[in-house]
Design brief:
One of its GO terms (molecular function) is ceramide 1-phosphate binding. One of its GO terms (cellular component) is membrane. Belongs to the GLTP family. The protein has helices at 3-6, 20-27, 30-33, 41-62, 70-80, 89-112, 125-135, 142-153, 158-165, 173-200. It is mostly helical. Helix 2 runs antiparallel to helix 4 (41-62) and helix 6 (89-112) runs antiparallel to helix 10 (173-200). The chain is globular. Bound molecules: ligand EIS. Ligand EIS is lined by residues 37, 44-45, 48, 51-52, 55, 92-93, 96, 99-100, 103-104, 128, 132, 136, 144, 147-148, 151, 155, 209. The site of ligand EIS has 23 residues, from helix 4, helix 6, helix 7 and helix 8.
């Protein structure tokens, strides 16, 4: 069974609200995936994403009945921290987490679409760079952009990456990509819904780190 299919995102309800508990359960499987990518540069990224998830979970567990959806959390924090919001609490953690999720979405979509460097068909640098430019680059100053360059050099070969997505099992490339495409349906809808929520609540910030 593929790693991706084991941890499918659920279909959203018609109002596109994201259930906090289900969301946290599903994203909590993502950090472990970094361990199979090999390089220690990925541990920096893993701990950043882990930190985001821990922060959102911490808020949720304080009052699960109050924070049924992610929007419930943002709205409550807007009321509680009017001066600092949205640069505070789980609102800030989810603001960054969604960018990492968007990065993964664009990377997987690009692989599924068959974007590749014809001269180096087993490299994924074109796919990773596309995802970085669209999801993260504008939020990074020169230093973090340098970290990206290091991570880019450490990116696995396409064949190894697809194998890792399939939990180390030898599956045919086409079968793996079919799994990726299926995974992307609810995943993309969820990430889109979170972006839309940040726009609607005017919660998006564009400072650089
Ligand atoms: C935020 O971090 C915190 O997350 C947030 C709060 O402290 C806030 C305060 O302003 O800062 O500084 C972090 C930023 N996070 C801001 C940078 C971390 C290192 C990022 C290095 C860039 C690497 C780009 C990725 C290259 C990957 C190559 C992959 C090859 C396969 C399947 C691979 C998936 C990769 C997913 C990459 C996601 C990167 C996410 C980075 C997010 C970021 O820029 S709070 O913390 O509120 O929770 O306390």
């Amino acid at each position: 069974m593929s790693l991706l299919l084991d941890n499918q995102f659920k279909e959203l309800p018609p109002d596109k609200s994201v259930d906090t508990k289900l969301f946290l359960e599903t994203v909590s499987h993502i950090p472990a995936f970094f361990d199979c990518l090999g390089s220690s540069v990925f541990s920096v990224i893993k701990s950043d994403i882990n930190g985001n998830i821990t922060k959102i979970r911490g808020v949720y567990l304080k009052d699960p009945a109050k924070y049924v959806t992610l929007q419930d959390i943002l709205v409550a924090e807007r009321e509680a921290h009017a001066a600092e919001w949205p640069k505070v609490g789980a609102t800030l953690a989810l603001m960054w987490l969604k960018r990492g999720l968007r990065f993964i979405q664009i990377l997987l979509q690009s692989l599924a679409d068959g974007d590749r460097d014809e001269n180096n068909p087993n490299l994924i640098q074109v796919n990773v760079t596309k995802a970085y430019q669209q999801a993260l680059k504008k939020y990074h100053g020169w230093f973090v952009q340098r970290i990206f360059q290091v991570a880019l050099h450490a990116a696995p070969y396409r064949s190894n990456f697809l194998k890792a997505l399939s939990k180390g099992e030898e599956v045919k490339e086409e079968d793996c990509l079919a799994n990726v495409r299926q995974f992307l349906v609810n995943y993309t809808a969820t990430v889109d819904a979170i972006y839309e929520m940040y726009t609607n609540l005017n919660a998006e910030l564009d400072y650089t780190v």
